[in-house]
Amino acid sequence: MEFKLTRKYIIVRFFILAFLLIGSNCTSSPPDVSITKPTVTPTPPLQQSSTPTIQPIRQLTPTNEPQVEDTATPAVKPQDNGDVITPVQKERLYQASLKYIATNEVDAIKIARGMNFVHNDGHPASMCGPLSIAILMDAGLMEKYMDLHEFWELNPRPGYNENTMKTFFPEDRYLWLTNSTPINKIDYKEFPLKAGDFIYLFAGNGGNFDHIITVSRVDSMGRAYSVSNLNTPSGYIISEVLLYDPNQPGTGMFYDWTNRKYKRLGLTGLGGFQLWRLKVPIKDKTPREIKLAENIDATLTKYGGKWNVLIKKIDGEVLYSRRAYEKIHPASAIKVPIAMLFFKALEENGVENYSEFLSQHGVDQRTFMDALHAMLVYSEEPATTSITNWTADQIHIDSVILGWGIKSTTFTPRRSTLIDLAKFYEGLYNGNLVSNAARETIFAFLEEYTPNDDTRLGVIRKYFSPQDHIFLKRGSIIINPLDVGDVAIITRGDEAYMVEIFGFQGKEETLTTFENLEKAIEEVAMVFWEYIQ
User: Per residue in 300-313, pLDDT tens?
Assistant: First the structure.
């Protein structure tokens, strides 16, 4: 969609430049204004769709270990491997941005409060982060399971909100670009911005506010635009602004925000920017997948709590993802990776006959076989400590898991993401992280039945045919923070699924109980089972 520099645009730009008293400051204190909060309805999220061929568990063969993924910070000028956002998604992004435009402060306050990034409050003076994220969410270019408050007064500098950025802009899906050049000194023909770019502008030397924007569109002439919050003599507004015109250097807000002639308007971008750009496609979900998400969402909302969920086909499409890149305490689910590392240590030590070794050798006055059984079947902590300590004496654990392409997991303290856990479990299932003998031993323990295995994800067991399997590891923490979770590989026919679900007690209006968290997991299990029929 092409937009020329029309008379209307010139008038709007003149209004902004001539009458703005101070730049949009995402940390400024807003006036005390009481406005009734409206409802803002986001559009449905995008989904992924592709169906790989999946082998049943008994037909798998081992493959080579994956190569370590390069995570070095990209150069200032990125290697452009094509635009991963489709034309349909770009149009949706543009239309989503237009929903937030407000030509006066009363309407701008209504929009800010409707976004609820500050509980029962909110003002356009401090909405740049939530606004930029909300536009991406409404366009389906980011998952909708985030609290906009996390982007209120966001600071991506080291030691501040790095974890927030890694959770929602993970490095395996986004380019992280840093440019210390003032935004008015960049050649945008050489460094063009793209629709969907999320940008943090640094005030820099002489600047007086940091600012956050999302590039909402780039027209056919290469001109980049953003819908942003602005302060005017009549109050705050939300307006679309031209950021730059690559064919007319000096034109656009990137030049006005760095021009000391307009210092009363506010200066930013003199310290350059940090940019996050999607590097892998986001596939639109099918109506059936959208319905799956709606049913899961309704269940989790009903029972309260805070949730991290990942449901995907093994080595295939993601069916449902909710804060899957957030670091959490995975409780006893991390004991499967510990077992995998134990067997990797045996491999490194040249052990070939696992059955004989496990039954004839041990640690802390019991055999390795007994310790593994206690750890994987009954989640015994002393056994886990024994296995972990012995393994750490044999191999460098961090180096091994890095070689497996796993980067966000620690064992002291126990922390991981659902994405990392999926890599462990899928690597185990596929036989490309440990030997087949180790794999079969671990799976035998995970499939061993105990009385409580009919609860949580296990409620679907009663519907299984003889060919169906569930390899389940659950975890619970009954003290603060309350944590109830299950991780399972579920096979049905020739297909295999990774299902991870963790519920936490939550706070304020989401506060819930252990019993409710378990009930929610059981209902989600039934929703998933119905989906795969």
Answer: 999 999 999 999 99
